[in-house]
Write a structure and sequence with these properties.
Layout lengths: L1 E10 L11 E10 L3 H19 L9 H5 L12 H17 L3 E8 L10 H20 L1 E7 L4 H13 L2 E3 L6 E3 L10 E2 L6 H21 L6 H4 L4 H13 L16 E3 L2
Parallel strand pairs: 1-4, 3-8, 4-7
Antiparallel strand pairs: 1-2, 2-3, 5-6
Helix pairs in contact: 1-3, 3-8, 4-5, 6-8
């Protein structure tokens, strides 16, 4: 049996108070272990090109929100909006060229009816369920690596669904317990600054957030982001990932981009 490596990162917070974000996005990026090096090389080569062309340090973390809003450490580069767009386009193309899959789960907090709703735990469960389905369809197991900060609740959730993972039938409201079986080991932690693939999850997660804001919420992009991109650009990033078969569309066949959105 082959093995996949899964990387998680998120956009938004997992609180349910009035001060919290109104939605939470958890993105899982996964690939066959045997393809890891080739995917890594593609991103490393991109970073070298960006260094040579724009001075973007190879070791500098790509944190998409801060990049778009011109916050440090990116402000010191003094890039124009045109250069920032070019960098975003290059990132998108490189991710699309990789041999990987992406699952995006959105927790729409405006539909939550209980303060006891566990946003992170639900988002992680729904994401792992989709990856588990893919693993069973294609006969592989997987390891999960996540950014620092939320390891304890994520480990607890993963352990729980190994034993109890209620899945609703497609044809009724009944639930069946289908424990997770292909996940290897506990979820592991790594600094995002040391992982190109966690940074990719961050990049995709943030653009899914922007897509949800503009296309579903019908809101305008924040002013500082409008200085760099518009909602058409946001749509083109998501569409590029879809066209190049990076998105796991089976995660939710009712969504054009496979977005898994809860509560329903």
């Amino acid at each position: 049996m082959k093995t996949c490596v899964v990387y998680f990162d998120e956009t938004g917070d997992d609180g349910v108070t009035s001060a919290s974000s109104d939605h939470f996005v958890l993105t899982g990026v996964y690939m066959q272990a045997e393809l890891w090096q080739d995917n890594f090389n593609k991103m490393r080569n991109l970073r070298r090109r960006l260094r040579d062309k724009y001075g973007f340090h190879v070791s500098q973390e790509m944190h998409t929100k801060q990049f778009l809003t011109d916050k440090n450490p990116y402000r010191e580069y003094m890039w124009t909006s045109e250069i920032r767009r070019e960098i975003l386009i290059e990132f998108t193309k490189t991710i699309a060229e990789m041999d990987l899959k992406i699952v995006n789960v959105i927790i729409d907090k405006t539909k939550i009816k209980s303060m006891d709703y566990s946003v992170l735990e639900r988002a992680l469960t729904y994401n792992i369920q989709r990856i588990e389905n893919d693993s069973k369809d294609n006969n592989w197991n997987y390891l999960i690596i996540t950014d620092e900060g939320r390891l304890a609740p994520m480990r607890k959730t993963a352990r729980q669904i190994r034993a109890f993972n209620p899945v609703q039938s497609k044809y009724s409201y009944e639930y069946t317990n289908i424990p997770i079986t292909n996940l290897i080991e506990d979820i592991m932690e790594k600094k995002s600054s040391e992982s190109y693939f966690i940074q990719i999850a961050d990049f995709v997660s943030y653009f899914v957030h922007l897509y949800f804001e503009t296309r579903v919420r019908k809101k305008q992009l924040p002013k500082r982001i409008q200085n760099v991109i518009d909602d058409n650009f946001v749509g083109s990033v998501i569409e590029t990932l879809k066209v190049h078969d990076a998105l796991n569309l089976k995660a939710n066949e009712k969504s054009n981009y496979g977005f898994v959105i809860y509560p329903k």
